């Protein structure tokens, strides 16, 4: 049902709100394209989870198998298209406008905030809302000082930290997961590292988020500029070469690249090593206690 609701937002006639669809026109559903958004889907599925509980209480027992899917999907779809869809869409647009405002007026604060929140922005799909801003900046100014540089250094940072995480793993499957996720992140695809590793290691995730905020605050303060719009990867470094031939910007970018690689690796190596030591200590404690009392149950949380 969640997948069905998500797919409905991408259905061509729903996206364009064709005039022939009198049913949709009757409810005055705004013509908004959700093809690059995630927030409306999250809000819609959250609402559906609440509606299902209500219908489950009200529906006759004999007809629950029919009533719950039909009415919860019908109500959720209409409310999402009329309310949560536009709200989620404008949240993304608002974030993009705030990004542009801070980038122009308070670059160090911009780098700190969006560097810190970058991984959360990626995980919610809100990154797509920034694309028009980046393209407009590059078209009008010839460069972008906002989310484009941040996405580059944050991708490198999570790649190096994920590789360090893999080094401290004893399980071959986890090592393979870490290495492949690190390589993907270095090529701009951070989802495997974020969802497969970082979200399961909260201390590591928060540390990398904080480090991303610090590095990007420094680079924004130094007025780092990206002169092209590309997928952020370790091969995207040339986008920081100024067309005028001035080398100062590319030097700043190289400094940022080194900081992201080295600090991400060191911080992750330390944190994952501490976590590994804690697990070993817990295992020894459990084995000792179990030897003394075979029936003992210990919760290490």
Description:
The chain is mostly helical and 301 residues long. It has two domains: 2-93, no CATH class; 106-290. It has helices at 2-10, 12-16, 22-26, 39-58, 64-105, 107-124, 131-140, 147-167, 172-186, 191-196, 202-221, 248-292.
SSE layout:
Elements: H1 2-10, H2 12-16, H3 22-26, H4 39-58, H5 64-105, H6 107-124, H7 131-140, H8 147-167, H9 172-186, H10 191-196, H11 202-221, H12 248-292
Task: Give the gist of this structure.
Helices cover 72% and strands 0% of the residues. It has helices spanning 2-10, 12-16, 22-26, 39-58, 64-105, 107-124, 131-140, 147-167, 172-186, 191-196, 202-221, 248-292.
Percentage of residues in DSSP E strands = under 5%
Structural class: mainly alpha
Order of helices and strands: HHHHHHHHHHHH
Helix content: over 70%
Transmembrane segments: 26-49, 70-96, 108-135, 147-167, 179-197, 204-230, 250-271
Membrane topology: Multi-pass membrane protein
Subcellular location: Cell membrane
Domain PTS EIIC type-1: 1-283
Characteristics:
301 residues, mainly alpha, 2 domains, 12 helices, flat
């Amino acid at each position: 049902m969640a997948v069905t609701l998500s797919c409905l937002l991408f259905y061509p006639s729903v996206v364009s709100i064709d005039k022939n669809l009198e049913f949709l026109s009757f409810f005055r559903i705004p013509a908004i394209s959700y093809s690059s958004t995630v927030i409306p889907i999250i809000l819609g599925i959250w609402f559906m989870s609440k509606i299902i509980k209500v219908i489950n209480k009200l529906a006759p027992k004999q007809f629950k198998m029919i009533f719950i899917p039909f009415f919860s999907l019908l109500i959720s779809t209409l409310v999402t298209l009329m309310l949560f869809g536009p709200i989620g869409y404008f949240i993304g647009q608002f974030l993009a406008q705030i990004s542009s405002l801070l980038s122009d007026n308070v670059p160090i604060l911009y780098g700190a905030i969006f560097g810190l929140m970058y991984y959360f922005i990626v995980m919610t799909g809100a990154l797509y809302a920034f694309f028009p801003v980046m393209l407009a900046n590059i078209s009008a100014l010839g460069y972008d000082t906002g989310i484009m540089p941040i996405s580059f250094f944050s991708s490198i940072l999570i790649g190096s930290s994920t590789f360090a995480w893999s080094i401290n793993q004893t399980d071959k499957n986890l090592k393979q997961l870490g290495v492949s996720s690190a390589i993907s992140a270095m090529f701009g695809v951070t989802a495997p590292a974020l969802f497969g590793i970082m979200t399961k290691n909260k201390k590591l995730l928060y540390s990398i988020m904080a480090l991303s905020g610090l590095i990007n605050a420094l680079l924004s303060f130094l007025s780092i500029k990206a002169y092209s719009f590309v997928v952020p990867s370790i091969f995207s470094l040339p986008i920081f070469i100024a067309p005028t031939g001035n080398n100062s910007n590319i030097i700043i970018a190289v400094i940022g690249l080194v900081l992201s690689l080295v600090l991400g690796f060191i911080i992750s190596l330390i944190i994952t090593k501490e976590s590994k030591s804690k697990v070993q200590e817990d295992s020894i404690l459990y084995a000792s206690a179990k030897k003394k009392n075979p029936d003992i149950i210990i919760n290490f949380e």
